[in-house]
Design goal:
200 residues, Rossmann fold, three-stranded mixed β-sheet, 41% helix, globular, disordered C terminus
């Protein structure tokens, strides 16, 4: 990774996309380690985490993670999912956080030197280009180690730097918890990860 000690850094984490990428690589993200890793690289200004929530449910398997992040140094950006029925008649939920992430990155761009985007979504290519024109360096963290790769080629080409998630596993990863994985599997069965589907 190419960071400078006095650089002002902000993290922008596309939650569903990062979860899908890490799971495809066979590990979970330890967000305490992730925050520590990037705090050590420069002056961490903000760490945003974006996710949609199924708010009508009494219990959402992602709620404990959201609450933990909220209390431990992350700025949470959430919104309710929208319900729809797929062609087979199955009830599903959809939640896309691209606009929220793009607005936050543009607004913060005057106050940072380096943006780190955890996503492989090709829709962010234009956003990255706009941020770069404002003098901000952009690193994208995703993976090409899956088949197909989880990062869109146009996004990887646009970024100043690319971090392979697999290479960060020892620094920010932990073993997959079977109980947690089962919980998230249930969540994923009903949840349509827009970002993941667009880059797959």
């Amino acid at each position: 990774m190419t960071f400078y000690a006095e650089e002002r850094i902000a993290l922008f984490i596309d939650g569903s996309n990062l979860y899908a990428s890490a799971r495809a690589l066979g590990f979970d993200i330890d967000y305490k380690k992730l925050l520590s890793e990037f705090t050590s690289q420069g002056r961490l200004v903000r760490a945003f985490y974006y996710t949609a929530l199924m708010e009508e449910q009494e219990y959402s398997p992602i709620r404990p993670l959201v609450d933990w992040l909220d209390y431990n140094g992350f700025t949470m950006v959430t919104k309710p999912t929208k319900e729809f029925t797929d062609p087979t008649g199955r009830r599903k939920f959809k939640g896309n956080m691209d606009i929220e992430l793009a607005i936050d990155m543009m607004e913060l761009s005057d106050h940072i030197d380096h943006a780190v985007l955890f996503s492989g979504d090709g829709d962010f290519r234009r956003l990255v280009e706009a941020i770069q024109r404002k003098g901000v360096r952009v690193t994208v963290a995703s993976t090409v180690k899956t088949n197909p790769p989880m990062i869109a080629d146009e996004l990887r080409r646009q970024a100043d730097f690319f971090i392979e998630l697999k290479s960060l596993q020892d620094k920010i990863g932990r073993a997959v918890s079977q109980r947690n994985e089962d919980d998230y599997d249930d969540y994923e069965d009903d949840y349509d990860y827009d970002s993941y589907e667009e880059t797959a």
